[in-house]
Fold this protein.
Amino acid sequence: MLELEPLCFSSECPSRALFDQIADKWSMMVLAVLDDGPQRFNAIRRRLQGVTQKALTQCLRRLERNGLVSREVISLSPVAVQYRVTPLGSTLREPLQALHKWTLVKLPEVDAARQTFDATASETASPDGRLLHFMA
């Protein structure tokens, strides 16, 4: 099992903040979209159904600040901006692909666990939804 220093779980640990920023759903998906090559903002947004303009802008800024994505202004009329994965960002490709593969392979098991939990939780809840007792 992976042994982590207790500091890694501290709110003061810099690795915790970085992990938070690269492991959120939009960051992982943006990096996957950019894996196909440089993309303009609207092209990324079209690929990521459900992302708001604000959420995508914030995500791209975080990724750029962390050195995982670069932003290039293209002098067209009107001016356009495109994003690409940096060499540092490309080092995340393998672990993110492994995580994505795990989700696809394990989804049936996760769905079964959810159904079992939901069935058990509904049996132990009062009519107003409060949990009557904890099932270990």
The first strand starts at residue 39 and ends at 40. The CA atoms of residues 54 and 109 lie 34 Å apart. The helical segments are 14-22, 25-34, 41-47, 53-65, 87-90, 93-123.
